[in-house]
Amino acid sequence: MTTTYQVHSDVAVITLDNPPVNGLNWQTRKECLSHLEKALADPSIHAMVLYGAGKAFCGGADIKEFGTPKAMQEPNLLSLILAFENAQKPLVAALHSVVMGGGLELSLACHYRVASPGCQIALPEVKLGLIPGAGGTQRLPRVLGVEVALNMIVSGEPVMSERLNMVPGQKLFDQMAVSSETLLDEAIEFARSVSADRPLPKVRDLKSRHPQGDAYFQFAKNMVKNSPQAKNLPAPLQAIDAVQQSTLLPMTQGLAYERERFLNLMWTPESRALRHLFGAQRNTSKIVDLDKNTPIRPIQKVGIIGAGTMGGGIAMNFLMAGLPITLLDTSQAALDKGVQTLTQNFQDRVHKGKLKADKLQAMLSALTTTLAYEDLSPCDLIIEAVFEDLSVKEKVFQALDACAKAGAILATNTSTLDVNAIAAFTKRPADVVGMHFFSPANVMKLLEVVRAKETSKDVLASVMALSKTIKKIAVVSGVCDGFIGNRMIEQYLRQAGFLLEEGCSPAQIDQAIERFGFAMGPFKMSDLAGNDIGWAIRQRRYVEKPQMKYSPMADLICPLGRFGQKTSAGWYDYKAGKRDAIHSPLVQKLLDDYRAEHALKARKISDEEIVQRLVFSLVNEGARILQEGIASKASDIDMVYITGYGFPIFRGGPMHYAQEFGLLNMIGAMQRFALNPKDDAQFWQPAALLQTLAHEGRTFADA
Ligand code: NAD
Questions:
Q1: What are the E-state strand segments in 168-253?
Q2: Quick check: helix, strand or coil at residue 535?
Q3: What is the rounded distance in angstroms from the CA atom of residue 191 to the CA atom of residue 110?
Q4: How do residues 442-482 score in pLDDT, each as one tens digit?
């Protein structure tokens, strides 16, 4: 059973009891309807209350049913809503904690609503590329007015019940309860007080209108069209359209309009991508061989070694989460510099209104600095962020092994070094794990958790749990050069180099991939990260993996000191202190001269080819990463690229995009690229897993 039915003398209470958020799946809907029929048929029942057990009133429809026949199986949400609205006895929704999506739509079909304070109310469908599909766009404007309802529907953000209760003339709540503890009793009492009221009020009988009529909706569309949230996504504009119809059409036609739009959006690639990512994010914490009940090591004190770019940013995350930090470096000067940068970053947040000044003081007083390893001994977790040099890491981990208390988790933030080797510097490799933060570490959402050969399960589970405390999206990666994200980006950057040889300019490549939706093209990205980093990696690669060919054109600019934004010159020119990439005639000449010298005939390359070559480079390496078990799920790779590399959200990540493109089609394109004389035929050898899946008609999700 996912619901209960209880009688409180003359009032029946129907309780949704389907943890975690009382989602309205078919079973729950069926039970709700039968409870409703029972209450209506019982002459001793005069009114009914709809309530939610546990941590939510109702979080909405069951996303697993989306787009499946189960969602429409009777009683579907629409027929349940009609049955509630047409009930011949008063029905009161008792709202608390979480009232979202289909849960809010169901409550709007009740005759009355009693809400507790602190209740989060939302129609978040837009975040899945949809609009509300069970009356939300028609009923919410009728109880909250067009503007408030429109803001909620277009943003998808929750609003607190207290705030909504202050909306002038609001008809969403008939009564505010004193507290969530007393809510049910108050709702029962309220139901009793209205049990004789007739006719029963229905939201559908209210009017939805805006004094400025269509002019207001045009204004709203103009605002939304140009906003970053709506860029490349059809749902926000369609949500405005649907709300506009609530002011123009009778209820039944408005509902039909909304439904048609909802169903059309369900099949758009954008909504499929967003729904995929919604599931992908939840699944990052599901690790096949990790039991849900794996014990978690408590983490109350954190040590960080290295007060540089990463150490400082990592410290900010923990301080913001209320955890005290001890920061260690080799000199007082390095510590002072680190603390100064960290303080400045926090102060910038205060100036931007993102942080309260008193919170800043509390955080700074939770920060201690030291030059002595003994001061790290009380720490439950110690993260190393020193120079990227194995011999330096060796000394640090030996010192840590000597000072850290038993059971402390020892983490490395290395980007490229072998975490198994680092773990072997200690006598406790089971306590060692990689925590690969991305720069700027206080801003970037992604955390690659690197599971080394001997990392214990409870260490892994503890770091995954901790990632939520510091508001990161953690993805588990096995040990390999570059882990998931950087290993894939290396192939993408190699391919960008081949494109240069064949005649593209850096700007042409950047613009093509940015039009595809990437936050930044490969050359702007390299200028931001520092071209010297890639240069050093390529020099190492020629020695380690001579078969991994690179275009020498990628190396033309570093010998001139053009390291990127930090030197105001890279693939582009930069004005001091500015980030705008300006065309560089010098770089253009370098590229032209190189092609002339090597008799390279530039050809015109389409944006489509540029995008496919860059994206499929990522996907092919992603498939190898999957077949080697470095990533355990394709959706984890998508999360890495969405949260760490600016891959367009509306395309769902590289693996999802390839799946939508068709794996056989992708292999066909790769075979064409392999014929390209200036490209590298070996580069386009499809990963074995990709071949298998494509030829067996399976998907990355089945891998
Ligand atoms: P950084 O040069 O800015 O800072 C390194 C700090 O470590 C300096 O303050 C230095 O004084 C200190 N240090 C050096 N040796 C030490 C020792 N033996 N004991 C204590 N402190 C010592 O470097 P960074 O960019 O912060 O990188 C740190 C680590 O993070 C590297 O392993 C790097 O690969 C990794 N990483 C960097 C980035 C990035 O974008 N910068 C991103 C992810 C991971």
A1: 175-176
A2: helix
A3: 11
A4: 999 999 999 999 999 999 999 999 999 999 999 999 999 99
Q: How far apart are CA 589 and CA 312, in angstroms?
A: 40
For residues 517 and 519, what is the distance between their CA atoms, to the nearest angstrom?
6
Give phi and psi for 480, each to the nearest 5: -165, 170
CA 468 to ligand 1 center in whole angstroms: 24
State how far Cα 341 lies from the chain centre.
28
Q: What is the pTM of this model?
A: 0.93
- The burial class, CB within 10 Å (0-12 / 13-18 / 19+), for 394 is middle
Which atom of ligand 1 sits closest to the CA of residue 337? 9
- CB within 8 Å of 576: residues ≥ 6 apart: 568
DSSP H helices in 518-584: 522-529, 531-544
Residues 108-145: tens digit of each pLDDT: 999 999 999 999 999 999 999 999 999 999 999 999 99
Average pLDDT over residues 417-438: 98
Closest protein CA for atom 1 of ligand 1? 308
Which DSSP string do the residues of 97-142 spell out, in sequence order?
SEEETHHHHHHTTSSEEEE-TT-EEE-GGGGGT----SSHHHHHHH
**Cα–Cα separations (whole angstroms), residue 553 to 102, 374, 556, 601, 680:** 55, 49, 5, 14, 15
Backbone angles phi, psi at 99, to 5 degrees: -130, 100
- 2: three-class secondary structure by DSSP: coil
Residues forming the active site: 105, 125
Residues in the chain: 703
Residue type, 219: F
What CATH number does the domain located at 3-266 have? Answer: 3.90.226.10
Class of domain 302-477: alpha beta
Could you please report the per-residue DSSP string of 386-431? --S-HHHHHHHHHHHHHHSPTT-EEEE--SSS-HHHHHHTSS-GGG
Residue spans of the domains in the chain: they are 3-266, 302-477, 485-702
The protein residue whose alpha carbon is closest to atom 14 in ligand 1 is 386
Quote the radius of gyration of the chain (alpha carbons, Å): 29
Q: Where does ligand 1 bind, in terms of residues with CB under 6 Å? A: 305-311, 328-330, 334, 385-388, 392, 395-396, 413-415, 437-439
Centre of ligand 1 to C-alpha 384, Å, is 8
Domain 485-702 CATH class label: mainly alpha
Phi and psi torsions of 13, nearest 5°: -110, 120
pLDDT in tens, 216-227: 999 999 999 888
Return the H-helix or E-strand segment holding 8. strand 3-8
Alpha-carbon distance of 274 to 649, in angstroms, equals: 7
If one residue of 304, 309, 640 were mutated to test the ligand 1 pocket, choosing by the most ligand atoms within 8 A of its CB, it would be 309
- Cα 364 to ligand 1 centroid, rounded to whole Å: 21
Residue the block writes with tokens 């292999």: 667
Q: Which of 375, 397, 415, 481 to mutate to test the pocket of ligand 1 (most atoms within 8 A of CB)?
A: 415
11-16 and 3-8 as β-strands: parallel, antiparallel, unpaired? antiparallel
Nearest-angstrom CA–CA distance, 227 and 211: 25
**How, if at all, do strands 367-370 and 381-384 pair?**
unpaired
Write the single-letter amino acid at 155. S
What are the φ and ψ backbone dihedral angles of 370, each rounded to 5 degrees? -155, 160
Number of Cβ atoms within 10 Å of the Cβ of 104: 29
